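Practice record 12: protein with pyridoxal-5'-phosphate.
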Amino acid sequence: MSDDGTGNGKRWRAATELVHGGTARSPYGEMSETLYLTQGFSYDTAEAAEARFKGDDPGFIYSRFSNPTVAMFEDRMALYEGAEAARATASGMAAVLAALMCQLSAGDHVIAHRAMFSSCDYIVTELLPRFGVPSTLIDGTKLENWEKAIRPETKLIFLETPTNPTLEVIDIAAVAEIARRHGISFVVDNVFATPLYQKPLALGADIVVYSATKHIDGHGRCLGGIVLSDREFIEDVLFNFLRQTGPSMSPFNAWVLLKSLETLEVRVERQTRTAAKIADLLADNPAVSRVIYPGRPDHPQAEIIARQMTAGSTLITFEVPGGKAAAFKLCNALRLIKISNNLGDAKSIIAHPATTTHQRLTDEARAEFGITDGMLRLSIGLEDAEDLAEDLEAALRVLG
Ligand SMILES: *Cc1c(COP(=O)(O)O)cnc(C)c1O
């Protein structure tokens, strides 16, 4: 377990780290990363067990704490993200919950941008307040709102950008500056941007979280999550919370995700190229009333996107006139694009947020977040762009 996969600690460029980073080979020198499907580890002597538990010997103890295959995934992600350290979790929501809970106590206060992944909204607006951590939701696209919402007890800022499903963008560097000035911990959910297109830590955020279920797996096979930050936060604050509470990533899932990282850039770049074409095509189609795509110059926050993201997105949000009936008719007329709620998958997926992912919000909240009944979220996969275009155009013709 000594080979770092790349030769004695040399740092390679990011795309190379996605293929080799974090590799810890067994004495057999296997090419493909080993799946250590084990709950725990044995010790040669009682003294060795004692030293391991005392922390004098850095080896593995129990897979709820850490596991060699999971550690390879964590190290590869940290190298790619440019983070000092990372810890993987069973799902994206486990990552979000752990990143928040491990540093909050009753009496603290949290501020978040109002448009969030629905389960993140549950954690911030329903769960944390039950444990004495009230939260304030704001329109975080207006920078002055962050400053206004800060109280002496504000401990943490949480946001997602681009947001789901309206693909709104928040200025990470500007919020980071406010957070730093007030000594507030700043957590970014970077799922929609992917680790390719946005580096929140470099922009000043303290902690980044991902649902690895999305682009990182990219084939709709397994759940996973990861939290990345500096070594002090990961090892001294987060790790104890994780090892005591147990939302650990399965070594099997870590192995699947490790192999997926090898193709992350090729997949996401290809999906983004296709998405840009499809976004333009939808914008030109008279049956579509609105297209929101972070790669288009008509995105309302194109200026921030140009500053903080290196490319658009694999996701497109668009609207058809005629509300839910028209949106459903369009979905049902598609033959290739699947109706589902994952994103970042190799297979293209359409979702109707108002009746699925954002169903639990009140009508008023949906209206406030701009989630209309005619709105659809399209996640572009790896199919031929022409086939996707034909599928969408045929379905849009059905709308008349
Ligand atoms: C999917 C998702 C999550 C939750 O991840 P799971 O792996 O489904 O638990 C959190 N935030 C965002 C933005 C997501 O898209």
